[in-house]
Records
---
Amino acid sequence: NAGVTQTPKFQVLKTGQSMTLQCAQDMNHNSMYWYRQDPGMGLRLIYYSASEGTTDKGEVPNGYNVSRLNKREFSLRLESAAPSQTSVYFCASSPGGQGTDTQYFGPGTRLTVL
Amino acid sequence: GNSVTQMEGPVTLSEEAFLTINCTYTATGYPSLFWYVQYPGEGLQLLLKATKADDKGSNKGFEATYRKETTSFHLEKGSVQVSDSAVYFCALTGAGNKLTFGGGTRVLVKP
């Protein structure tokens, strides 16, 4: 039982390049999330998927797109990377949309945009 | 909107010292409150949570009580160890189970 996995662990991009961050969970969770972590700002929600087939914007969605490929997988795409997107990205999942649910986090992807 | 404020670090302590990290929040309705911990090089993991007023969450010697009257959820541990060195995040859930995080507090415990 691997929990939440993310690939890649590290990535360096040049401004304007595109890439997709992959996330998968094996806990049969309904809800999945993408966050970015910046120094002193905690984690901020980019997009989330309450259930398979649905996605919604979070606090900082500009410059990103997501795909809920199936119940297990939730990808985050940067179409044209900018230096402001240099950050650590975390994927998380939870059983459902209840406010009491615990979210389970992956190990993160450290992205640098030059 | 919802917001979480926690004390800035770093907090440096000696082993066996008492640890308190303050957390206050602003939210509509009745949010659930969480403390997550991030050890070096890892993702976040749940430390404890409380889902209604006056509930006390506890785990690994850490405790926090959901105080609605003061909108607070302070984290405490009576005797810290070097292995408690980490970044601690206070958070709350709003609509759709979306977490709002505080900025994080880095704790360094020295032997």
---
Amino acid sequence: ETGVTQTPRHLVMGMTNKKSLKCEQHLGHNAMYWYKQSAKKPLELMFVYNFKEQTENNSVPSRFSPECPNSSHLFLHLHTLQPEDSALYLCASSQDLGTSDEQFFGPGTRLTVL
Amino acid sequence: GQNIDQPTEMTATEGAIVQINCTYQTSGFNGLFWYQQHAGEAPTFLSYNVLDGLEEKGRFSSFLSRSKGYSYLLLKELQMKDSASYLCAVRDSDYKLSFGAGTTVTVRA
């Protein structure tokens, strides 16, 4: 595998379920990101990790819980979500923070909350 | 907060030129990015501007004016495969990326 991969690609869950989204990057990057993309809205930055340490939590509700066990893997744990949380969740990585390096995006997980 | 504006939709003919404008107001500036996103796919990097002027990369060019808070992406010799959403993103003083809502470009034969 190359680039940034995400699993699952599609997820349907009820409001009382607990699920996790997984992201893996094979680029040797040090920074990883979670974004939310809703229809007709800009990508919203959720979390930033640099060298496994969380550097940004963009006022995300606690029902979203990120985990970064190492620089190559990033998880987003989901619990008691709301229907308005239905969106495309994108993971991205970059070599470092604060440089001209572009972010490489995964294909996303299409989440539907019933 | 950050404010990044770009048109919602544009339509052009195959072989033509289209210019997508982006204006921004952000807390600090550390570069502007353009991404392309085909429906159902990941955004992919197109260009990066941090100094004023034009950056050319094949059929795509991107321009930046920091004093005006303005950028454009120029797509030349349009092809059907260029039909996609084009995202303008600005990196602020905290090195966070803020995105516009995207411009959907439709290329017609």
